Amino acid sequence: MSRRLLVAGNWKMHGSMQFVKEMMAELNSSLPAKINYDVAVFPVYIHLYDVITNKPDHVKCGAQNLSEYDDGAVTGEVSAKMLADLGCDMVLVGHSERRIRSNEGNEEVAKKFAQALKYGLTPILCVGESLVQRQSGATQTAVWQQIQAVLDLVGIEKLGQGVIAYEPVWAIGTGESASAEQAQEVHQFIRSQLVLNDDTIARRIRILYGGSCKGSNAYELFSMPDVDGGLIGGASLTAQDFMAICQQADKLSQGV
Ligand code: 13P
User: Fold this and answer.
1) Contacts of 88 (CB under 8 A, 6+ apart)
2) Which of the following is catalytic: 97, 104, 129, 167?
3) Dist CA 248 CA 106 (whole Å)
4) Protein residue with least CA distance to atom 7, ligand 1
5) Nearest C-alpha to atom 5 of ligand 1 is from which residue?
6) Residues 100, 152: contact at Cβ < 8 Å?
């Protein structure tokens, strides 16, 4: 089954109104109108509206987080309903920076995943092991526990409506990407576990790689059989770097 590549830029806590203006102008002028892969960007909440109203139609926009609740006395949080109302298409859930800094546990992440689907947003479930876990041979256990929690809450059908992003914590923002083989090994493991639940869904779901992905390594990473694109941090912050990754996805999507 051929899966469309997805190049997703997670801007994290970067940017400004001017940055958004410039990035949208660049995307509008540089990204061809017809592409055989998908592109998405994830600005901070307060820049979402500007991105949504100025992006090219075929670029998706998502938030970096959402509340596990519908609405109510939850100061400082933003609900899935509000994101959908604004025009968001997607949302990141369980990014390691939130798991670590905000103590988001597997159950909370699973609730957020369910909440996104309830309001028609596509959740990107971020999973990944720490350096200590990798060094002690616990990569598969750590990654699968994070996915299992979502599976337990929503079931395989609904998990299949989202996207998974494998982001080894040790590769995020370090300049040291996982090798294409290391990424493939984990992606293949995830897919093989999902096959045990539903073969069709396992083959259809997109699994992105994230962690120091850039123009120079994107082709090699995305050409792995179970790597379906990337979740890009640092290299999504300039149009030039981001477009360099998009160009690699473009080549692969045309079989070059
Ligand atoms: P970097 O590409 O900066 O390593 O960040 C990856 C990431 O965390 C994307 O969500």
Assistant:
1) 48, 52, 61, 62, 63, 121
2) 167
3) 33
4) 233
5) 233
6) no
Looking at residue 250, its pLDDT comes to: 97
> In this structure, what are the phi and psi dihedrals at residue 121, rounded to the nearest 5 degrees?
-90, 145
pLDDT at 245 over 80: yes
Give CA 163 to chain center in angstroms. 7
Rounded Cα distance between 76 and 66, Å, is 11
Bridge partners (DSSP) listed for residue 231: 8, 210
Tokens found for residue 85? 């109302």
Residue 126 in contact with residue 94, Cβ under 8 Å?
Answer: yes
Residue 105, ligand 1, Cβ within 6 A:
no
- The number of beta carbons lying within 10 Å of the beta carbon of residue 19 is 16
Q: Is the pLDDT of residue 244 over 90?
A: yes
At residue 191's C-alpha, the angle toward residues 114 and 232, to 5°, is 70
User: Which one, of 2, 15, 10, 3, lies nearest residue 231 by Cα?
Assistant: 10
- Is the beta carbon of 232 within 6 A of some atom in ligand 1? yes
Q: How do residues 205-218 score in pLDDT, each as one tens digit?
A: 999 999 999 999 99
Looking at residue 256, its pLDDT comes to 86
Give the pTM.
0.98
C-beta of 230 in contact with ligand 1 (< 6 A): no
Confirm if 39 and 60 have CB atoms less than 8 A apart.
yes
Q: Which two tokens stand for residue 152?
A: 């337990």
Q: Is the CB of 184 inside a 6 Å radius of any atom of ligand 1?
A: no
